[in-house]
Every structure is written in structure tokens, then in C-alpha cells.
Amino acid sequence: MARWKGAFLRTIAFINQKGGVGKTTCTVNVGAALAAMQKRVLLVDMDAQANLSLHLGVEVHRLEKSIYTVLTNRSTAREAVFFDLRKNLSLLPANLDLAGAEIELVNLVGRETVLRTTLSRFLAEEAFDFVLLDCPPSLGLLSLNALLAAQEVFIPLQTEFFALQGMSRLIDVLELIRGRLGHTIEITGIIPTLYDGRTNLSREVVSEIQRFFGDKVFRSIIHSNVKLAECPSHGKTIFEYAPSSRGAQDFERLAREILRREGAVPDLEPALPEPRDSIDEVPRRDVASDSSAASGGPDRLPVVPAPGPLS
Ligand code: ADP
Ligand code: MG
After folding, report:
1. Ligand 1 pocket by Cβ (under 6 Å)
2. What's this model's pTM, rounded to 2 decimal places?
3. Got the DSSP string for 130-192?
4. Ligand 1 atom at shortest distance from the alpha carbon of 47
5. Cα of 21 to ligand 2 centre, how many Å?
6. Pocket probe mutation, ligand 1, options 25, 138, 198, max atoms within 8 Å of Cβ
7. Which fold has domain 2-277?
8. Residues ≥6 apart with Cβ < 8 Å to 59
9. For labelling, which of 88, 123, 148, 244 has a CA lying 20 to 30 Å from the CA of 287?
């Protein structure tokens, strides 16, 4: 963890190249739960679908400044951030423009560290406790920017068949970021999501996830809960929409566990150090779009993968 303005800052990317596994739901509600616990939280929407921004009720079509204008150097982060959109909860929003950013950035030297550079400048003058980055369902340039701006990775995993499919590819990308770019980043949390306690399958998949990831798996599982599915369309967090729901309880427990584990977070390098190298040296196919992973590409893992070292 790094120290900014006298406080510890944790920067966490919520990532899984599969869509619909609960990344955005986890980012917004973990953020809201931490904010309610008096932590100052910045949420960063890295997905052109802007689900995170919409979930918080932002009218994204009206945005003049967003993560897109930040990444393309048309505005500063400070100009684009909604400060205290809710108490203790700020947002760097996205909109559909972001879909063009990957193409615009592709020829830029240092294209994978644009976010890190601009965010570190911004964070040096702010006093956030947490930065939570909601990644798109791919391992392309936007996800890479998020990972290089983060020190920790949380992986939401849907407790369904093939939950672990594609994980080896994500782990490869993290290895690449660590090895070739010298960026210190750790998987520090696995969040089982959309859990249905009535089915054997959900239970079996959680056991399997625990076999694979060991004690990185949070005890606080996120159950499938209809209120969680409803609240995005109301532009509300679960604590605003249904504060006594199972979903709200699950996210409050999860946030407590995240805080309890703080001591267990490896002492990482100062946040956002300059990268040692450029990813230009890495064959592009390693970091390009992940569509093969999402659709069952060559990295398919067996349903019960052999446990192995992860970091
Ligand atoms: P991702 O960001 O990984 O694509 P989302 O968080 O957007 O996934 O979730 C996908 C869909 O599932 C959304 O419609 C969301 O409201 C719903 N959802 C997510 N988590 C839950 C849950 N625990 N219970 C019920 N619905 C959920
Ligand atoms: Mg999402």
C-alpha cells in the first residue's frame, strides 16, 4: 500500500474478461459500502458500456468530460471527476466515446500507462483511501491501463460451470505486467458472485474456486439477489435501493472483510511507479482482445484445474 497525503491508498482493478459475472455490481456496491464506512472512494469507469456510471444515475450521454477525454488528453482527471457524487464516493465516469479510445491510443508511446500517469498526478493531490477500477469484459488496452494503474486485482467469478475458464489467460497477462513491465500487482481477492445456495453446482464451483485460489477467495460470497439485478435501472446502489436486502448485507460483509484483510495486503511498491519497460516489446497478441478466452479459446481450463502458484 502506498501513502498519499498521510493516508494509505489501495488501488484495485475489478477484472474478469467474461461479461456478466458481476464486475460492475461489485465495484459500485463495494465502493458504496466502503464509503458508508467513512472511506473516501474513487470509482473509475473503464468500460464504454458505462454501466458503472449509469448505475450511479449519471446521464452519460450528456457528459462532456469523462475517462475518454482524460485518456486522450482532452481534459484532466480533476475536470472529469464527479466529486462526492454520494457521500465519500466520487466517480470518474465513462460513456460510449470510450470505445474509440483504444484505437486512438494504439499508436501512442506508453499507451498502456496513460491512465497511471494521469491518475497518479491527480491522486497525489487528493486524499482517497480506495480507487476501484471497473474493467471492460476484455483484456485489451483499456484493461491493461487499469491494471497498470492498480496494485491489486479483485476477480469476480460467477459461481457457474466454467467459472475458471479464461483464468489462465488473465494470469498470463498479470505475469507479463509483472515480469516485463516490472509493475507490482497481486491478485488479492476472488469474489464468488451470483451464488445460489439451493444448487449443488454453486457449492461445487465455490469449492473448486477455493482449490484453485486458496485463501484469496473471500468468505463473503455474493448471493444471487433480485434487488441487485434491479438497482442499476434505478441509478442507485443497493444501499440506497434496498438497504435491508440480502444483496446489501452481502456487500457490507464483503467490505468489512476487505478492510480486515488490509493487514494481509502485501506491502507493495509506492503506488503507480514508473514502468521499467514498455510493452512495445511484447508481442501484441499477448495483450490484444481476449475474445478467444471469452468464447472458449485455447486457454480453456479443466473444470477442476490443478492448483498452482498464482503469484
Ligand atoms: P459485469 O460487469 O461483469 O458484466 P454486472 O455486474 O453488470 O457484470 O452483472 C451482470 C448482470 O447481472 C447485471 O444485470 C446485474 O444487475 C446482474 N447481477 C450482478 N450480480 C448479481 C447478483 N448477485 N444477483 C442478481 N443479479 C446480479
Ligand atoms: Mg460491467
Report:
1. 19-25, 51, 137, 193-194, 222, 224-225, 228-229, 232
2. 0.87
3. EEEEE--SS-SHHHHHHHHH-SEEEEEEESSTTTTTTHHHHHHHHHHHHHTT----EEEEEEE
4. 2
5. 8
6. 25
7. Rossmann fold (3.40.50)
8. none
9. 123
